[in-house]
Specification:
This protein is α/β, with parallel strands linked by helices. The protein contains 12 helices and 14 strands. It has a domain of about 240 residues: CoaB-like (Rossmann fold, 3-Layer(aba) Sandwich). The chain binds ligand PMT. The site of ligand PMT has 21 residues, from helix 6, helix 10 and strand 11.
């Protein structure tokens, strides 16, 4: 019996083109710069990254609601920029991006992230006087909702005998503080929430945010806690309809998502204070990888965390050294001391930049 050939959804002509080979494996191209060169030369985003970034955006499906998102951003930034002060604004990214396998998507690859880090950090930034653009994955944890049960609507509320809705006594405090915290932040114009699902949406919205925040100079901060896919299927080589299982085993080649950190630092938001994250499951490689990210992408800080201990401890890596940041006790969260430290570092950065 002949075995059906594995299904491949990257068109052969694209696969064989030198550009696409370079795209899949940037290290194979002779002109690619070494990591040491990258450390010293982020003044210009290297040719391979520029090429990957250009291809990524050119082939990405058009962002729905791009005009509405741009309008909300302009209004939010303008409002915060015109305040006496001026107010600091941080873009917090949160949750994992999906990578669709079909254009009319039934299946996708996902990155793990509950969104707890991003949502909790947002609360602490707001508490520290920042305005926050919260770029989050739909369905993940939201600011001020940490103390609510998994299904707040069904677990926090009950029907009374006259069919009106009432909060259960046991959840009353949590519901009150969620509603008031969220309402104050949004209606006061301090919190703008923008959702994403796919890697295409995430990177297109991040670019819109970064370019709108340019006007804020060093008062802008990026806190990139989202778990971003490293591999994806380019839109033009993606199956349109649901991939048929009758065609046999699926053999799919994923292209590399360009690391946008370099582009963010150099082109989109060159004067902003940038904090990226490094997540590993192997603690032996974590700090080395965080150090590399700090130097290679010229981040102002990298938050290194290990998957299993991420809620108890993170390590803040800056050019001044490494600091372990612990939560104070079982009732507290590590984001409280972490944001305090980052706010101090951001203040120093603003002072030095303006000096
Ligand atoms: O949400 P929780 O469950 O609370 O968990 C929090 C967290 C573990 C998700 C969070 O603390 C965290 O570590 N987030 C970053 C996870 C991640 O994607 O790490 P990375 O090592 O793969 O990427 C490093 C950095 O590069 C990230 O800041 C990412 O935004 C950025 N990146 C990644 C890929 C890519 N193509 N471009 C990027 O810019």
């Amino acid at each position: 019996m002949t075995r059906p050939a594995p299904t491949s959804f990257i068109f052969p002509q694209i696969l064989n083109s030198p550009d696409f080979l370079r795209y899949l494996n940037p290290k194979s191209q002779p002109s690619s710069i070494s990591s040491m060169d990258a450390v010293n030369s982020l003044d210009v985003v290297d040719e391979t990254t520029s090429f990957q970034v250009k291809s990524f955006f050119e082939s990405a499906p058009l962002l729905k609601d791009a005009d509405s998102i741009s309008g909300k951003l302009t209004q939010f930034i303008h409002q915060n920029f015109s305040l006496p002060g001026p107010r600091r604004v941080v873009c917090v990214t949160s949750g994992g991006t999906t990578v669709p396998l079909e254009q009319r998507c039934v299946r996708y690859i996902d990155n793990f992230s509950s969104g707890h880090r991003g949502a909790t950090s947002t609360e602490y930034f707001l508490k520290s006087g920042y305005s926050v653009i919260f770029l989050y994955r739909r369905g993940t944890c939201q600011p001020y909702c940490r103390s609510l049960p998994d299904d707040p609507l069904l677990e926090c509320f009950k029907l009374t005998s006259d069919s009106s809705i009432q909060v259960h006594e046991s959840h009353a405090e949590a519901v009150k503080s969620a509603i008031s915290g969220h309402h104050d932040a949004v209606s006061g114009g301090y919190l703008l929430k923008l959702p994403f699902t796919t890697i295409f949406e995430y990177l297109q919205i991040l670019r819109l945010i970064a370019t709108s925040m340019k006007i804020l100079g060093p008062n802008a901060m990026f806190y990139l806690a989202a778990a971003v896919s490293d591999f994806y299927v380019p839109w033009e080589s993606m199956a349109v309809h649901k991939i048929q299982s009758a065609s046999g085993p699926l053999d799919m080649r994923l292209a590399q998502v360009p690391k946008m950190l370099a582009v963010l630092r150099k082109e989109w938001a060159p004067t902003a204070f940038c904090v990226s994250f490094k997540l590993e499951t192997d603690k032996d490689i974590l700090l080395e990888k965080a150090d590399n990210a700090l130097k290679k992408y010229q981040m102002h800080a990298v938050v290194a965390n290990e998957l299993s201990t991420r809620k108890e401890v993170v390590i803040l890596v800056t050019k001044c050294g490494k600091v372990s940041v612990y939560r104070e006790n079982d009732q507290s969260v590590v984001e409280s001391p972490l944001i305090k430290l980052l706010v101090e570092k951001h203040s120093t950065y603003i002072r030095d930049t303006n000096a």
